[in-house]
Amino acid sequence: MFTKILIANRGEIACRVIRTARAMGVKTVAIYSDADRHARHTQLADEAIHIGPAPARESYLKGERIIAAAKSAGAQAIHPGYGFLSENAAFAKAVTEAGLVFIGPPAKSIEAMGAKDAAKVLMRKAGVPVVPGYEGKAQDAATLQRQADKIGYPILIKAVMGGGGRGMRKVDKDADFAESLESAQREAQSAFGDSTVLIEKYLTRPRHIEVQVFADGHGNVVHLFERDCSLQRRHQKVIEEAPAPGMTEAMRKRMTDAAIAAARAIDYVSAGTVEFIAEGDNLDNFYFMEMNTRLQVEHPVTEMVTGLDLVEWQLCVAAGERLPKLQDEIALCGHAFEARICAEDPARDYRPETGRLLQFSVPEGPFIRLDSGFGQGDEISVHYDSLIGKLIVGGADRDDALARLRAALGRSHVAGIASNLNLLTRAAGELDFGTGHIDTGFIAAHPALLRHTAPDFPGWACLALAEQLDLAAARATDASPWAATDNWRLGGLAPLVWHFEYDGVDHAVSLLAQGDHWLVSWRDEALPLRLVERRADSFTIELGDRQYHAHLHADGATRWLKVGPTRWRVRALGAFGRPPERRDQAGGHGGSVSAPMPGRIVSVQAAIGDMVVAGQILLRLEAMKMEHNLVAGSAGKIAAVLVAPGDQVVEGAELIRIEAGA
Ligand code: ADP
After folding, report:
1. I want to staple 414 with a disulfide (CB 3.0 to 4.6 A). Which of 14, 277, 322, 419 is the partner?
2. Closest Cα to residue 345, out of 580, 120, 503, 554?
3. What is the pLDDT of residues 361-376, one digit of tens each?
4. Domains of the chain (ranges plus CATH)?
5. pTM, rounded to two decimals
6. DSSP 267
């Protein structure tokens, strides 16, 4: 076994690899960029080496520098994690040529599966079913359009070098093809340095089922059962589980056989995942989609149902050992889910969020595991992806695991940045999810999952009470804050009215002190309110005859509130404050479009003098590895276009100015 390895990655996966290496007595070397000087993976490793500026292409993608770091630290092997250089055959080759071990498959296996088009051709030859489509060399727009027309809409354009849902566009009708092609190619070029695409028949509401395979250098290939990753947003996984609901032994046999055939066809070694797309409830029609020649983000669910440590297996195989277990020694036991907690706002088109994590907690328990690269106080930077952590929850069977997942999600909390926790909590709570009726269109078919709803009475009561207590505490000079609160009156017995803004709407909550409690009113409701307990940011209040537990974090004027399983971001406007001016909704009020986050302008779809309508896409911005549409907030005439494609913009930069509709 190695005595020291370098981990060519960051975030949760770097921490994950360090954990196993440490347990095996293997020393670890982390690499870090300027943005990650204080990151958890940097702190956790035995040694850490700085490799460059924050942008990944100048640090985590600098293969040569990483290899030099490994050599200088005396590491014998490099674990690439996922993303970054993990599926870069040239890097794997360079590592080997430098006399180090690449903890992953041989470069030629990566190459064979690296391009989705070549992989499909290879798999078809190996007798594995593939999705019907075009994967030809001719890439001119006319040929591609002809092929798409021939396949029949809807179709899917995929970047052959793509991953993580990038460079992928669904096209519903021929008229939309050209524009989607252009944007897919552009995203592919910028993300993968290659704009080649393939076209596939788009299966409506399919399931994504993948098989974990493992091979050693001695000719042994096994599978570790399947995972269902059908709960997706924009073709990216959100909640994964193992095993797949409704999987029969017969179907599992066909799928795992196909996966092992795929691995054997490319002389595979190490951990790999063969992804299939399956149509319909009976999973009878399944097709090969691609093989990921690395450890997957969702590998923990497999670990939970097999009791194995996949990173340990990777290290053993890379060190030349045989697989620790053969097929008949590997058993499937129980059920597991993984929920990806991301810094993004699902209700705002999944806009990535950056900033400092004021709070990040998930409950602890015997069936709960948290894989994360971040802790409270850490910064989610614009330079990398938005994954904060993965909550993995197991149970005796699907119902048991799901009940535990629902409870754990309901008690998890992120504050300081918006997260997808409400979406995860609601999705896991859906009846259809409970019955296993999932497919890749699940979130789209349940639009209520994304909707923001304003806090209800307990939330407002807690918010107002916290303001009042803090104000009283600030005013109390020599008395205890509680005494001051009880005795203090502003304007005699007049209630104090606190204003908050949620989603552009002003909410007024009034508090009237009444001896040992308050009378709180919101809209046309009024109830007695007591503070039962306040410990740092956690509150227990009694509203009417019920107790509610809440978490409340203040950051400037922003209040991060959680009551029960729901979280909100609210703005505190103060007491006696005048209701704020309503924000302009759609309508001829003019205004400007500004950058919601730092990024690069990829295209501008409006010119000076154009008349635009509210909601019309005006620009595309690339940030945090995704393209984002920026739309007109109101109708009007374009008065100024302040940026051009290729421009880097800072957060808040004005990009386009719109004049009230002429
Ligand atoms: P990536 O490598 O970018 O993750 P994949 O090829 O693995 O791309 O596909 C990602 C997701 O896109 C799948 O899980 C599935 O939801 C969807 N998808 C891919 N191919 C098809 C298809 N032919 N029809 C419908 N959905 C598809």
Report:
1. 419
2. 503
3. 999 999 999 999 999 9
4. 4-103 (3.40.50.20), 112-131+207-226+242-298+313-333 (3.30.470.20), 132-201 (3.30.1490.20), 457-575 (3.30.700.30), 591-659 (2.40.50.100)
5. 0.87
6. T
